[in-house]
Amino acid sequence: MDMRIGVLDVGSNSAHLDVVDVEAGAPPLPIYALKASTKLGGNIGASGVINNAGAARVVNAVSRTLDTAREMNVAQLYPFATAAIRDAANRDQILDAVEHETGLRLQLLTGEQEGRLTYLAVRHGWAGKPAACSTSISAAAQWNWHSAATPSPISSSRCHWARDG
Asked: Which residue range or ranges hold the Ppx/GppA phosphatase N-terminal domain (predicted)?
């Protein structure tokens, strides 16, 4: 194993952590997956605001997945939020709350980036395989490890996991 990475996809139903071992020239090897419930559907009002109960579930789900990432000795973590949080009227408050409570700043993927990652996952045959990572997660892991020359949609100094804390 060259590196153990984790990708955290925080969406409307769950915070989905996939942990993979990666080696240069090889596809990611899934090691562990965890889904922590966010269930935001009933917590987004007509104005697009995620209510306090929904925000608390997001914070709790991210905290739980971070604990697992630490236990799994993840060297680098790529955390991102998808449409439910990206499109929320109070997304900055949600992102700030997660960062305040967990120390982790979620990155936002655009709709185009989500589509690209899903396409890559399907193209590489990762969709629908029980032992494989979820579509977005696997594609993100593969993209970041094997395409260093291609700017990553989730690369940022704030994305990288600090093993110390």
From this structure: 20-126
Task: Find the helix or strand (DSSP H, E) in which 51 lies.
Answer: none
**What stretches in the chain show pLDDT beneath 70?**
1, 117-165
Nearest CA-CA partner of 136 in 152, 159, 119: 119
In this predicted model, what pLDDT tens digit does every residue of 108-128 receive, in sequence order?
A: 878 887 777 666 666 666 554
Q: Which domains does the chain have, with CATH numbers?
A: 3-151 (3.30.420.40)
- 29 Cβ neighbours under 8 A, 6+ residues apart: 1, 20, 21, 22, 23
What is the DSSP code string of 98-143?
HHHHHS---EE--HHHHHHHHHHHHHTT-TT-TTSPPHHHHHHHHH
CA dihedral 10, 11, 16, 20 (to 10 degrees): -70
DSSP 43: G
Nearest 10 degrees: Cα torsion 41, 45, 65, 76? 110
